[in-house]
Structure formats: structure tokens, C-alpha cells
Amino acid sequence: MNFTAVHPNGTVDAELAAAIAKLKTDDHGAGAVNAAAAPPPVFDVTRYGARPCHEDHHGGGLQCQSSTAAFRAATMLAAKAAATGQRAEVLVPGPGTFTTGPFNISTRTTLTIEADAVVKGSTDVAEYTIIAPLPSYGSARDGSPPGCPKDGCHTRFQALVMVPPGSTDVILNGSGTLDGSGAFFWAERDHLKAGRPHLIEIHGATRVEVGGLTLLDSAFWTLHPVYSKDVHIHDLNISAPAPSPNTDGVDPGAPGKQPPLSCRSSLSADVR
Residue 249: what pLDDT? Predict the structure, then answer.
């Protein structure tokens, strides 16, 4: 199996490279892909090194380590399995809070976040790939903070969960929580060198279902389906404090019809 730790911008993710090297050499460990396993294969992020946050017993509060490499290893292996025609699942087990940078969920893959599990966006902006604005927008749509040109940021940080272009038959579900660590990005908005990330972006995909999750404190728009069709969004609890900037609940982008919605929102700007 061939994997890569090279970002779209050409840089190498050293942590992810190390995780992949371990997987390649561990033919009998929990991370190995077993062709004889009953479908669909499940890729539990904790098998690849994801560790939940824990309380510091000396009064230091909640202590978290980055699980970005583990999430990306699990999702890459799931994509490889799904490329053979079978369905794959990326599992975030509960209870526990896991801190990670952005990752992709692509064709024939289900992301399941179990009850009492929280996937929390990293506050280390170095873990976020900087990507181009959407073609129909021309900018990140994040206003004109001092760190950006007067006509707005022309690049943006990748969404925490990205369904990338060309993906089909994707499911994002469970009873757990996606937390965008919005408070950090709202406070740092004037100092960021790119537009704030969405919590979930469904970009140029077909047959995508998002349901059951709690979506909390997105840095920017919470759920952004764009250039996509056959998107089913249901039974979500979407929340951010009223003063938070631009935390739209579901913000569908043209072209394409607005997806069917059945959600509960409490935001600065709700479904658009």
C-alpha cells in the first residue's frame, strides 16, 4: 500500500510520515489492514495514536496532545480501503476529547463520532493547510481583517472536516460532537494570515449525509455544502454564542439547490 505525508502545498508532515512508516512495518498490529476482515473495515483513530485529553492533577486544567497524525493516518487508510469498492468507517470512540487539525472524509467512507466523544479543532494554525478560495467567491469571505488585503483574504484555512471534490456516498454521523475551537479563532481573527476555517465543508460531492451530531463553536461558517448535490442534513444540534462572528449554521453555496434540512440551531446567524 502506498501512502503520502505530503500536503497539497508541498510540505511534508513529519508526524504523519512517522505514523505511516509504523503502519507499513506493523503487519500484525491493530493498525494493519487485514484483507480477510469482515467488511466494512473500521479504522479507530485510537489505534493510530490518537489520545484523549486528560485533566492535569496538579491544577493545570485540561491537557491535550495533537492527534492530527492519527486522524490523517486513519482517514487515509479508510480511503485506500474504500478505493477497492467496499465501504469503510473512521471511528472516534467515546468518551474522550481528541484535538486534531483538518482531515478529509472521502468516497464510500463513514465518519462516526460516538456519544461522549468530542473532535476538537486544533488551535495551532500550523496544523491547518492553507487553500485557495472557492472559485465563485474569489476570496475567503471573511471580511478584511488587518492581516488580509483590503478586499479580503484570498486564501483560507481548510475546514476541520472536508469532504473533498469528487467524493460520493459519504456519511458523517454519530451522537458525538465536532468542536471548532471557535473562541480562539474569533479572538485571533485580526492576526490570522488566511480566512477562518469552516467546521465542515462538503465541496463538489454527491450523495452526502450529515446527521445526529452536535456542531459546536465553529471558527467561521459551521456547515458549508458547496457545488454539491444530493446532500441530506438532519438531526443536528448546531450552537455558538450569539456574539460570535459569522458562525452561520448551514450555509449552502451555489450552484445547486439547497439541501433538505432538519436541525436545531442557536447561532449568531442560522440557516441561510
Answer: 84
